[in-house]
UniProtKB/TrEMBL annotation:
This is Kinesin-like KIF17. It comes from the Eukaryota. The lineage of its organism: Eukaryota, Metazoa, Chordata, Craniata, Vertebrata. It comes from Gavia stellata (Red-throated diver). Residues 57-123 form a coiled coil. Keywords: Coiled coil.
Length: 162
């Protein structure tokens, strides 16, 4: 009866000391390996979000507390990211409004200069090369180095009769 009990309770190898030693070594190696992995993860990632996944808990309450802390950390990160996104969006909106204002102001200035040119063009002498504004625009060249237009010099063309 005792022999049957040993076989049922501990199996056929219940009294095998070599097998028990081998199991103890495996368990010890697994514990050491787990500790090494946990230390490596903790060093490489201070957030310890992966650390919670490798942790072995003694009770469900510990697991719940650890995961609750992780959830709180992630919620804080999420709120910080959402705040940053809102700040960036408002900053971009302000820049957009500023650019649109600049564009409108430049368009008004362009219209003013165009109207001035239209009025002044009739006052320019016909024998001056500036009487034809389209020709002047065509002959003007943008200079990248100085950042301004090179406009042809005004010339009065006198017609000599034979």
């Amino acid at each position: 009866l005792q022999m049957l009990e040993r076989q049922v309770v501990g199996g056929e190898q219940a009294e095998n000391k070599d097998l028990k030693e081998k199991q103890k070594r495996r368990k010890k190696y697994a514990d050491e390996r787990r500790m090494q992995l946990a230390a490596a993860l903790q060093q490489s990632n201070e957030d310890s979000s992966d650390w919670v996944l490798l942790n072995v808990y003694d009770s469900i309450q510990e697991e719940v507390r650890a995961k609750s802390k992780l959830v709180e950390k992630m919620q804080k990160k999420l709120r910080a990211a959402e705040t940053e996104i809102k700040d960036l969006q408002s900053e971009f909106e302000l820049e957009k409004i500023d650019y649109l204002g600049t564009i409108r102001r430049l368009e008004r200035d362009l219209m003013l200069f165009q109207q001035l040119l239209d009025r002044v063009q009739s006052l320019i002498r016909r024998d001056c090369n500036y009487s034809n504004l389209e020709k002047i625009k065509h002959e003007s060249v943008w200079d990248e180095e100085t950042g301004c237009w090179k406009i042809p010099e005004p010339v009065i063309q006198k017609t000599h009769l034979p």
